[in-house]
Amino acid sequence: MRLFRILLAHELRMLLVSPASYIAATLFLLVMGFVFAGILETFTAGPQEAAPAAVFFQLFWLPVFFMVPLLTMKSLAEERRLGTLETLLTTPVTTPEVVLAKFGAAYSLYLALWAATGGFFYILVRFGGQSQPIDLGPLLGGYLFIAVSGTLFVSLGILASSVTRNQAVAGILAFVLLLTLVIGTRFAGTLAVLKLDSLAGLRATVDYIQVFTHLEDFTRGVVDTRQVLYYLSGSALALILAILGVEAKQLHG
Amino acid sequence: MSAVPAILVRDLVKTYSGHPAVRGVSFAVSRGEIIGLLGPNGAGKSTTLRVLTGFLPATSGEVAVCGVDVAAAPGDVKNLIGYMPENNPLPDDMRVREYLHFRARLKGLTRRNLAPRLDEVVHLCDLGRVRDRIIGKLSKGYRQRVGIADAILAEPPVIIMDEPTIGLDPHQILAVRDLIAGLRGRMTVLISSHILPEIEATCDRVVIMNQGRVVAAGTPADLRQEWIGPAAYELELAGPLDALPALLAALHPTLGPAAPLAAAAPGEFTALRLVAAPDAPDLREALVNALAHDPRFRLRSLTRTRQTLEDVFLAATRPKAA
Q1: According to the CATH classification, is domain B7-226 in 1.50.10.20?
Q2: Does any CB of chain B come closer than 8 Å to the CB of residue A83?
Q3: Which runs of consecutive H residues, i.e. helices, occur in chain B?
Q4: What is the reported pLDDT for B322?
Q5: What residues of B are in contact with residue A252 (Cβ under 8 Å)?
Q6: Which residue of B has its CA nearest to A253?
Q7: Distances (CA, A) of A75 to A93, A99, A176, B56, B260
Q8: How many Cβ atoms are within 10 Å of B152's Cβ, its own excluded?
């Protein structure tokens, strides 16, 4: 535990002194700022059905696709390329501690960046001049969804970084994994094949892993423990595979 | 000296997906010794060192550090070893001070011991001037010293360094060699290299590996005895060379020219190389006396060839003739 704390502090520090983190953060806030401004414009044009927060979080995948690979691709791939993984693992630290520290640091930064978007809503409430304050329910639900689903997204990025020594390959692999998870399952849900009665079990599975359904539930205030469990167990699996990935590479050179 | 050897390797075998890198290596290092692991590229040196540090698991065989089995208790072994891998990997985006501090914390130095020990190591490795510089911008010599500083940081009983002087200029090699020699007696040091004078100057004992096996082990002097065949003499001589073999045979039965003698112009000096059996005594004085007292010969110079570890290395790692 002591070693994990040292490693986590080190990883956070390295992320915070790296220019790449600031570039990613600026781009992220810029994109989300434009999205938010766009949403406000449509809301001023006329009454809408959904709450602005719900629409805002509908676009969560946009930053996830580029942010998560950028934050995680360097983590293990770079250490392996430089060979510093060898110096690290010949000190008393264990592979799980190293992988979990990398995950912890990237996840913290991911959360911090999303938390910064809270400023948009604050500005809206503070300067919007509306008598009616913004609906808190979808907002909190949306942030909760981001926090819970983020564990799986970030750990998939770490997994991608653990299987290669090339940052670019890790980044692309993370992107593909996230794309499959978010868009791929949505596409699979629309397949006509799944409507067959004999594939009812498969259909239930595909419905269960629909990320967009989870988002809708969370923003409506429904926190389903099955969905939380899905993300937590999924990220645990991805991290275990990442640990095995690091160790397998050691075994076979 | 303790009865438990600092490093014990017995029948170590390591294969990479069926391809053998180390095939049955055994050696032992007692405490306080400085040992050189020699061998051509691909001989299995780095693999042996990596198994010793617990970074790679052995395929079979037994490896122990200070009596602790590496396979059974890898965590304990990591506390006993300071390791500098091949090419000395360092993070490029940290300052020397930050890096050493981080490494010291990882290696379990308490906050109280940390600052004085860091100062000591920085002083020992002469890193004072670059303490606040970013590692990525350091010269190779300084990077190497940062790596050595890291290896000795926690004062482990065993230091393992893979090619510590690769890519350094002669001044830096000398500095690193002094640094390693300064550890003698306090720590057990195992260094691998293919730079021979360096090993000969620093190491108490040498283990030579080739193609995954130990081909020779012992002190540099022992190895010379074992691997260098006949003692050799080089001389410059003028006179009737065909009369020479008889004269030499009178001095020692095995003494004779290394190559067939060619006839030289009378009165001109020729360079000759003579060889004798390894167990023959030093024949320099006898040779000088015999040749000087013989009116037919004129002797200009005579030396006994000093055999270096290089000759041992070449002899021990020579590819076997088919």
Answers
A1: no
A2: yes
A3: 45-52, 74-80, 96-106, 111-124, 140-152, 170-181, 196-202, 220-227, 244-251, 284-293, 309-316
A4: 37
A5: 16-17
A6: B16
A7: 16, 9, 18, 21, 67
A8: 24
pTM for the whole structure: 0.83
Yes or no, beta carbons of B91 and A82 under 8 Å apart: yes
Nearest Cα to Cα of residue B178 among B27, B34, B4, B18: B34
Nearest CA-CA partner of A12 in A83, A136, A133, A100: A100
Residue B14 bridge partners (DSSP) = B22
How far is CA B72 from its chain centroid? Answer: 30
Residue spans of the domains in chain A: they are 2-252
Q: Which residues on chain A are in Cβ contact (under 8 Å) with B94?
A: 14
Q: Which of A7, A14, A92 sits opposite B108 (nearest CB)?
A: A92
Q: What is the DSSP string of A125-150?
A: HHHS--SSPPPHHHHHHHHHHHHHHH
- Environment class of B136 (CB within 10 Å of its CB; exposed 0-12, middle 13-18, buried 19+): exposed
The Cα A56–Cα B91 span in angstroms is 39
Is the domain spanning B229-306 CATH 3.30.70? The answer is: yes
Q: What are the pLDDT digits (tens) for A161-204? A: 999 989 999 999 999 999 999 888 888 888 877 777 777 888 88
Give bridge partners of residue B231 from the DSSP assignment. B276
Q: In chain A, what residues touch B17 (CB-CB under 8 Å)?
A: 252-253
| Contact present, B14 and B56 (Cβ < 8 Å) | yes
Q: Which of A63, A39, A65, A62 is nearest to A52 (CA)?
A: A39
**Residue closest to B82 by CA, chosen among B31, B162, B150:** B150
Distance CA B254, CA B260 (A): 15
> Who among A7, A14, A83 is closest to B89 (CB)?
A83
Domain boundaries, chain B: 7-226, 229-306
Q: Nearest by CB to A82, which of B16, B89, B150?
A: B89
The answer to whether B107 and B154 are in contact (CB under 8 A) is yes
The confidence score (pLDDT) of residue B229 equals 58
Residue B321 binned pLDDT confidence (cut-offs 50, 70, 90): very low
